[in-house]
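#struct-help
A.M.: can someone run this one for me? Single chain, 317 residues.
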Amino acid sequence: MPRVAAIDCGTNSIRLLVADVTTGSGGFDLRDVHREMRIVRLGKGVDATGRLDPEAIERTRAALVDYTAVLRRKGTERVRMVATSATRDASNREDFFGMVREVLGSDAEVITGDEEATLSFVGAVGDLDPADGPFVVVDVGGGSTELVIGDLADDGTATVRAARSVDVGSVRLTERSLPGDPPSAGDVAAAREVAAGILADAFAAVPLDGAKTWVGVAGTITTLSGIAQDLPAYDPDAVHLSRLSRADLHALSQRLVTSTRPEREAMGALHAGRVDVIAAGSIIVSVLADELHARTGIEEIVVSEHDILDGIARSIS
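D.P.: on it. Structure tokens below:
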């Protein structure tokens, strides 16, 4: 069976998936061989400066060197690396591309926000019940948020109806609107307004008629699930397909925006690289929850460990 690898380099993290492609009467599926995530904060300061910080590029290089060694050990046949929000916006992105070419031996693709949204959808719905669609998939990243609606056929084919990516994520919103730790009530209220205003563009572009299930993917949302469950350490099996109500999301956000850094550092499911940005991420998710409820009546989110990485892997399978 073919062995493929996907690398997703975003604003906050760089992630790797190595998977075997399995085939059957219903088409093909992926079997995980290796998953890994590093917080490199490639997009730190990009919103303000328009440039990738050289130290951030070096952090990313170090992670990519390790990933390349994994690819060799695992005998990967095909690799696709995509770069998303931070790299799209940086004036010196050629420095990043040159580094990737040198380390990986192939190019990173800068995909559009809408392409990012589509890949997230394809990855997220693969193991869901088609009868629960149409699905709204939301990916809250470090620099952007993707909103997608689509369907899943009985044969496993995912079809996107509409998708939009907007420039609000946990890192951007923290840098733009939450200077204090913990932030003041006024800053929290202002951050909600900023998030709601930017997300309005996504909701205007993505008709949600008939949507039945809200699926949340990527680190912000999966981390919120881990915190809600009071996990002593992050556990992907406990997080995958867990559910959080709108009330849960608001309570989590209130807890996080009023917490101190030491209090967040003591949360077992919270990666050290997300401690300073998870409050902003929770604000974005709570705004999404209210807007989705107002438009569709959906009251809860299904949290998935499968996301753009799986979509990238499927695209080369």
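A.M.: thanks! The domain at 3-111 is CATH 3.30.420.40 (Nucleotidyltransferase; domain 5).
D.P.: also worth noting: The longest strand covers residues 27-39.
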